[in-house]
What we know:
It is a single chain. The chain has a five-stranded antiparallel beta sheet, with helices on both faces. Helices cover about 45% and strands about 10% of the residues. Helix 8 (about 185-195) packs across helix 10, helix 9 (about 200-205) packs across helix 10 and helix 10 packs across helix 11 (about 230-240). It is of the alpha+beta class. The chain contains eleven helices and five strands, in the order H-H-E-E-H-H-E-H-H-E-E-H-H-H-H-H. Strand 4 (about 120-125) and strand 5 form a beta hairpin. The longest helix is centred in the middle third of the chain and has 26 residues, at about 145-170.
Amino acid sequence: MKRLKPYLAMRSVEELWTHHTETMAGFGFDRLFYAYSAFRNLKTLGNPDDALVLTNHPADYVEDYVNKGLFRDGPMMRWASRNVGAVSWRQVRESLIGRDMTAGERHVAALNKRFGLVAGYTISFPMAIKHASAGIGLTARAGLDQDDIDAIWARDGELIEIINHVAHLCISQLPATGQSRMLTRRQTEVLELVADGKTIQDIALLLERNSATVEKHLRGARDTLGVETTAQAVRKASILNQIFLIEPSRPAPDQALPLNI
Length: 261
C-alpha cells in the first residue's frame, strides 16, 4: 500500500511518469515504454501521432522505433495488442522459433540489440473501449539477463503488475501537461461544448461570439491535435485528458467547502 499511495497524489502525467520510472528502476527495470491509443484498427497498430507515448529510452531509439514505425514489427508490441496480462520476453521470443523472421522483425531485433534491450517483461492492460490498447514494456538494466528478470518476477511480479496497473489508471485520468499538442483554453471550451451536444450556433450564443469565431477555434483544435474532423478532435482530446478538467482553483466535489446554513 505504501508503494501505491504516492500515485494517488500525482497531478499530471509528467509528475507520475517521473515517479513511476524511479519505482520500476528499484525493481531492476531502468527503461520503460508506455503507449495508449484508442485509434488502433483491426489491421494495424495505428499511428503513433494518435497515441499517448511515454518513455525514458534514448531519443535515438525512440526515433527509429516510434517515428520510423518499427514498433509495428515489434514482437512485444504485437503481443500486447493481441493479449492482456504480463509476459516474459523469453516466452515471446520462443514463440518465434521455427519460422523465418520478417525483414521488419529483423530490423527491430537489431535495434534492440544495439540499444541493449536484451531482457524484460511486457504488460498489456485490459481496455473497455473497442479498438483501444495500452501496454508497457519494462526493460532490464544492463547486467541483468532474462534468467535474472524471470527470478525477479517470480518474487515480485504480482506487486510490479499491480503498481503498473495503478500507474496506467492514473495516466488515463491525468492531464498530459507536457504534450506539444496542447489546446488553448478557448479551444478546450468549444470542444467541451461540442461534446455536450451543442451546435456551433449554440456555442456562439453561449460564448457571445459569432459562428465564424467558433469555427476558427474548432479548426485550431483540429490542427493542434492533427485530426480531420471535430468528432475526432473531441475523442483525441479526451484521450489526452485535455477536456473536462477540474480547474485547480475549483475544489473537487469531495473537497467542496461546507455551506454556512
